[in-house]
Specification:
By secondary structure, the protein is mainly alpha-helical. The protein is built from six helices and no strands. The chain folds into two domains: 1-77, 434 Repressor (Amino-terminal Domain), CATH 1.10.260; 85-120.
């Protein structure tokens, strides 16, 4: 059986079902006819499954992979956020008036920082 950590048997989620079936069959060292026998179908049905335009159900994909002596493992992982979602949630908890007040406060603080920097650089008297 394949292990997820084994790079030889790891099949990218980006590959399609046909590629997954074909790779599993080839790694098992069996022919389409042998796979068909294991699945209880015909060689021509396996050839159709391995064609780039095939779109088998998850059940058929799993049956084909299992017939090669492998396990099909699917996993979902939460995609890491590109931003701190807690900051967004905090903002959404505020009323529109509170958000405007906070924005005005940040603007005033930004102006103060700009003035301090300008004085330090000698741009203001």
């Amino acid at each position: 059986m394949c292990g997820i950590a084994d790079p030889l048997y790891f099949i990218s989620a980006m590959s399609n079902a046909a590629t997954t079936i074909r790779r599993a069959r080839k790694r098992a060292g069996i022919t389409q006819e042998q796979l068909a026998l294991g699945m209880g179908t015909t060689q021509s049905a396996v050839a159709r499954l391995e064609s780039p335009t095939s779109n088998p159900t998850l059940e058929t994909l799993e049956n084909a992979v299992q017939a090669t002596g492998h396990d099909l493992r699917l996993s979902l992982r939460r995609k890491p956020a590109g931003v701190d979602e807690t900051l967004i949630r905090r903002q959404l908890e505020l009323t529109p008036e509170q958000r405007l007040d906070l924005l005005e406060q940040m603007y005033r603080e930004g102006v103060k920082l700009w003035e301090i920097g300008a004085r330090h650089r000698g741009e203001l008297a």
